[in-house]
Amino acid sequence: MFGLIGTALAASFVDSLNPSAIAQQMLLQSMVKKKRHTLYFILGMGLANVVLGLGIYYGVVDWVSGLISQMASAYPIYTYGTEIIVGTVCLIFGVRLTVKTARGKTASANSRTEAQPPAGLSPLSLFIMGAAFCGVELTSALPYFGFLATLASYDLVFPLVLAFIALYSFIYALPLILIYLGYSRLQGTKAIIKLENALGRISAYVVPVALGLFGIYMIWSGIHSLI
Fold first, then answer.
1. Model-level pTM?
2. Is 32 in a helix, a strand, or coil?
3. Mean pLDDT for back-to-back runs of 10 residues, the chain (227 residues)
4. pLDDT value, residue 115
5. d(CA 74, CA 48)
6. In whole angstroms, what is the distance from residue 54 CA to residue 188 CA?
């Protein structure tokens, strides 16, 4: 049991040194007006890590993947048509957010003390972003899969499985929590104001552009699959 705890701590520590997650957290800190809302991003990432970990451990993810593959083979028009529709919605929403953000930047051109957040960056959207980011990162999270493989070699009851995966997820999200605490402590200082001004020039467009690009990918993937 102590060996399993050590494995969980070591693997989660290596997995937590994620430059893309840290960079995204820094951008979000400069984008939102209420800094505590970034905790929803961290919460979404952590909960998704737990849920997906349980799904992988108990084979639910494989079952869902097989079900989707069967549906795509049996009803390709409906499946990929839905993908195209979702991609179109994401693209339209991304374009609208980009336009609104550009207008907001123009209207606040005389104010240089605070970066303006993009429209629609609510706690719910931050939570969804965190969960989606975790899902994307999980495809290449070798330490996580290695830990789950080790965990599967033990015959543990569900509460213990949940506890170990929750421990892993907490250590994984710990650097982001520390960034939030440090950022909040230094908020208002000259260094943070300069950092927000620098990041604000690009961060306000990150979410809308990423959403638009995701929509384009979904549309292309749906059309390519149908063809």
1. 0.70
2. coil
3. 84 82 77 83 92 87 76 83 89 82 61 48 84 80 86 88 93 89 77 67 68 86 83
4. 44
5. 29
6. 41
Domain residue spans of the chain = 2-226
C-alpha distance from residue 83 to each of 58, 109, 212 (Å): 27, 38, 14
The number of beta carbons lying within 10 Å of the beta carbon of residue 73 is 9
User: Hey, what are 216's tokens?
Assistant: 């384009």
Report the alpha-carbon distance of residue 170 to residue 120 in Å, rounded.
28
Cα–Cα distance measured from residue 107 to residue 85, given in angstroms and rounded to the nearest whole number: 33
pLDDT confidence of residue 65: 72
- Which amino acid, 143? P
The DSSP output letter for 122 is -
Task: Compute CA distances 118 → 98, 152, 205, whole Å.
Answer: 8, 43, 7
